[in-house]
Every structure is written in structure tokens, then in C-alpha cells.
């Protein structure tokens, strides 16, 4: 699994940072979290195949998080997309799509299916779930939690000890079915251990530090709003964003695995200050950069 | 005067080229011609002061020419703009602005004034005129002609010969007023020569080669659609664009001063082919590049 940071600025772009966008590459799919202006170009520059995007999540309706949508819809159309495109966003998404469709002539040969995020929304895919969590910003905003669906560990030693022949019997047990061996029932619990840890990625979107993120970021790669440095807490409160130190505190309290600071104000020309301040609180902190790729490996979890 | 190419691609962006946008820097004003997605970032990267934009022209309503407008409007608002913003575009611009205003929450403290381009539209500023010319694309599209307003040359030798004292008398004559000197009338025609040549910049926008551009590009810096190389004329006809050789032919027939090829298909990784083909027809051809600056100097006209 790979995270590709497409845009990491706050509100206004800079030479170094474009508007918000994160691509999650998982197996043969690309999932897009936010789609600020310029996202389609960042997808192209980062060689992320936009035709593999099936689902786009828009965390809230501030322009810097969704104004890349019309252009991306258009470009997918130029590329002759036929497959449905699912867009998940707060209440109002159906109207937004309707408005976007009136902005120009798209000639779409695919459908855009709008889904409304809510406090208890959960998308269940075969291999992963994505749920939305209500965060604290100036307008209704949802953070996002990606979790890989993983089965229980197969305890090979035990299976061998029980004399189970490798092959279909293993599969059945792994799927949760009991098998009969030499007149005796063997149950999944006899050979299955703990649930394996899957990938977990949490995106706070734009928010004040909040419980919903803390409660959900255990063991996760946490991507958190860090618009300001620690000295500008008043600005953060006023604009309903977070400082880098607040983000680090969230990661610490929630026991995240890694923290990537995002939504960085263009006033910061280098990462130095933000890194220094936040690493004092949560050592495993990075400042996300445009086009940065983060590969997640199971062995490291 | 300076031309800044902000985006030069056709339809879909590439790592090298963003969506259409051209900034004309003239005295203390920035005039924007087209505003494709990503234009605000290109303005920032090229250090073009977006607060000095008073007028934006949208040549037609294909997404790659106007989808940067909502984001730019938003960013001008963040920067606390108070001055009216004038937007000139084909029929439908009022509805488009209305739609854009429903896309998000802008909190504007300035007005957007929509103006409709037509076959005989001409904006008359004190120092320049900009007129729109109907070109030949798949939807209603206007090319743009910027012309500096210049007075007649003041013939100093003649004025001295006539014994006119330098100062207010010179000014009056330059403004077209007669003066009395030693009981004799002296008329402007006595001391004024030919009309001075001003800057002229013509932008074809997306079009097949057409008479309107040829008739208007004499002595101008011509920026012309060159989506394809010469071998792909059929594609150009089908999509209502031009090849680089067609663009060069227009520049030649219209007796342009310089030709900048724009709206370049992402299929061309280098400029070589386009340059080679078009320079055979019109020597003074360049392929416009993103963030390229072209300074126009009076002495070279």
C-alpha cells in the first residue's frame, strides 16, 4: 500500500505546495481523499493512474479541498472512462455534482454516484473499510479512517501437530469452517491465532484537535492538519485549524504509529520549525511534501 | 510590457504544461487571458501579483480554459480584495459566475462584474484597447487583440525650426490643440508625424486557422493554437484546432511579428518537431512554455 501526497498547502498554493489531495494506492485501486485545484496534474506528475480511481472522498466543501473535481471529471471523460465514479462527501454533494455538471460541457460516458458522509458512515469493501468521523472545523467536515480487513493468523505448528494435511482443509479452517479428521471435529479456533494487523491510515482533514481523531488513530499512519506552528495557536483557534504541536499531541494521545503534518500554511518556507516543535512531543513526525510517496509494508506494522 | 505564459497544454495537463492561461503585464495592471485549472498557482510561481488583475477574459467555455476561475476568485477573497473584478467571456458568463458562486462559500468583499464578448466587442482603456474576434472552434470562441493606444510622433526638429518654446506649447500641440506664436497659428499637423507603433498581442484561443486572426495579426506577437504537428491535420480538423504548420501559415499571411505556439498536445515531449515544421513557413516561431516570460520593448517594434 502506498500513500501519495498530491497537495499539502493550506488555503492558498505556493510554488512548493498545491491544494489538498491524497491518493491511497491499494492493490489495483486508487482512492482519492480530497481533490483541490490542480489534483489532476499532481496525479499525472506523480504517475498515479487516474483511471484507477473508483472512489473520491471530499472531506468538506471549502474550495481548496474540492475545486479540482470538475477538471478531473473532465479529464476522465477525455480518457473515455465508462466505469461509475463514486464521490463521497458531506450533505450537499448531490447539489454540488449537479452544479459542477452545469459548469461546462463534459460529454460524460460514465455516471457519477454521489454518497453522503455522516457520523456513522462506513464503506465496506472486501479488502478494506473506510469510515468517516466528524471532526471540528468551521463547516461540517469529516476525517477519514482507512482500515485493511485482515483475517486471523494461521498457526501452522498447531495444524501440523493436529496432523491436518495441507491443502483444502487449511483453507476451510481459515475461512472459519470446521473440518472432520479421523472421526474428530477440528474447529477454526484450534488453528487460528490473533487477528492480523492491517494497514491503517487516518486523515484528520481540517480540524481543531479532537477526540474523534484521537480515538481512531491507534497504530495508524495519521495525517493531521498542522496549518500553524505552536506560537500561532490563536490563529488556529480562530480559523478552526491545528498547530503542529497540537497535531503531535493528538498522535501521542491516540498512540499513532507515524504522523504526517499536512495543510501547511504557505508562510513556512522550510519544514524545520514545524518538525522541531512537533518531534518534541511525538518523535515519529514528518512534514508531508507534495508528490511524496509513503510505502506501507506489513512487516513494519 | 510583458507576456507571461501560465499554462500552455491542450485539454489535459502534463508535468511540463498546465491548463491555458496568459498574463499580460502592462504598466501597473495584470490582464488575464483564460484561466484554466491551476492558473492561480502559476501566477504565484511566476511571481505575478494576482491582486493587480482587474480584468479576466475567458475565450470559451471549455473546462481547460476557465476551471481555474473559482479558485482564483477564492484566493483573491482570502487576500481581502475589495476592488471590482471584471470578467469578459462569451454569452453565458452571467450564469457561469452565478454557478461558480454556488460551488462553495467565498465570503467575497468585492463584486464580480460580468461582460459578454461578441463579434464587435471592444474594451477601450486610456492606454490600450482589447477587442474580441470570432474564431472557429467547436463552441462559440473569441480570439483577443490587445493594442496599445499610441499618439503621433512629436517632430522636435520642426518645432525648433518654427521657434516654438519647449514646455506647455509642446504639450498642447501633442494633445491636438493649435497654439498662437508671434501672431501666427501653429497647428498640430505642423509638428506631429506618423502615429507611433504600440504593442500588439493577438491570441487565437482554440481555433481552426481563420480569416479573423489573419486580418488582425499584422505586426503583432501572435499566440496561436498549435495542438498538433503537421501530420495530424485530420485530428486538427476533427477537434477544431490547428496544426503548428497551419499556425505558421496564419502568421505568415497575416504578417505577424512573432509567433508563439500554444495549446500543445501532451503527446509532444519536446518542441523539436513543432519548431522544425513551423519555422519552415514562418521563421520567427517559438513554442510557448509554462512560466515563460516575453518582454516586449518599444525599440524592437
Description of the structure:
Two copies of one chain form a homodimer. Chain A is of the alpha/beta class and 301 residues long. The first copy, chain A, is 26% helix and 28% strand. The first copy, chain A, contains eleven helices and 18 strands. In chain A, strands 6-5-4-3-2-1-18 form a seven-stranded mixed beta sheet. In chain A, a hairpin with a 2-residue loop joins strand 11 (179-181) and strand 12. In chain A, helix 10 runs parallel beside helix 11 (272-279). Chain A is globular, with a radius of gyration of 22 Å. The two termini of chain A are 12 Å apart. Chains A and B meet through helix 1, helix 2, helix 3 and helix 4 of A and helix 1, helix 2, helix 3 and helix 4 of B.
Query: Which fold does the CATH topology of the largest domain in chain A refer to?
Result: Metallo-beta-lactamase, Chain A
Q: What kind of oligomer do you see?
A: homodimer
- Mean pLDDT across the residues of chain A is 95
Shape of chain A: globular
Number of strand elements of chain A:
18
Amino acid at each position: 500500500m502506498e500513500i501519495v501526497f498530491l497537495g499539502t498547502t493550506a488555503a492558498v498554493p505556493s510554488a512548493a505546495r498545491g491544494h489538498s489531495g491524497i491518493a491511497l494506492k491499494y492493490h489495483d485501486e486508487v482512492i482519492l481523499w480530497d481533490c483541490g485545484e490542480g489534483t489532476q496534474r499532481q496525479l499525472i506528475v506523480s504517475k498515479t493512474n487516474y483511471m484507477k480511481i473508483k472512489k473520491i472522498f471530499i472531506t468538506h466543501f471549502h474550495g481548496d479541498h474540492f475545486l479540482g473535481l470538475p477538471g478531473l471529471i473532465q479529464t476522465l471523460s477525455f480518457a473515455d472512462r465508462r466505469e461509475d465514479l463514486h464521490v463521497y462527501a458531506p450533505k450537499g454533494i448531490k447539489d454540488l455534482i449537479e452544479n459542477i455538471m452545469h459548469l461546462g460541457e463534459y460529454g460524460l460516458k460514465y455516471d457519477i454516484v454521489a454518497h453522503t458522509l455522516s457520523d456513522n458512515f462506513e464503506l465496506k469493501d472486501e479488502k478494506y473499510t473506510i469510515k468517516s468521523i466528524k471532526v471540528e472545523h468551521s463547516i461540517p467536515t469529516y476525517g477519514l479512517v482507512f482500515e485493511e480487513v485482515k483475517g486471523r493468523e494461521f498457526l501452522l505448528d498447531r495444524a501440523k501437530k493436529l496432523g491436518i494435511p495441507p491443502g483444502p482443509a487449511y483453507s476451510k479452517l481459515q475461512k472459519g469452517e470446521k473440518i472432520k479428521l479421523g472421526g474428530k471435529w477440528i474447529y477454526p479456533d484450534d488453528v487460528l491465532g490473533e487477528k492480523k494487523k492491517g494497514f491503517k491510515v487516518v486523515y484528520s482533514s481540517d480540524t481543531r484537535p479532537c477526540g474523534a481523531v484521537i480515538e481512531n488513530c491507534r497504530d495508524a499512519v495519521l495525517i493531521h492538519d498542522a496549518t500553524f506552528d505552536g506560537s500561532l495557536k490563536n490563529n488556529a483557534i480562530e480559523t478552526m485549524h491545528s498547530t503542529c504541536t497540537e497535531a503531535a499531541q493528538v498522535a501521542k494521545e491516540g498512540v499513532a504509529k507515524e504522523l504526517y503534518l499536512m495543510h501547511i500554511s504557505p508562510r513556512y518556507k522550510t519544514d524545520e520549525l514545524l518538525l522541531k516543535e512537533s518531534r518534541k512531543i511525538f518523535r515519529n513526525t514528518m512534514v508531508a511534501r507534495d508528490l511524496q510517496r509513503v510505502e506501507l509494508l506489513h512487516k513494519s506494522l
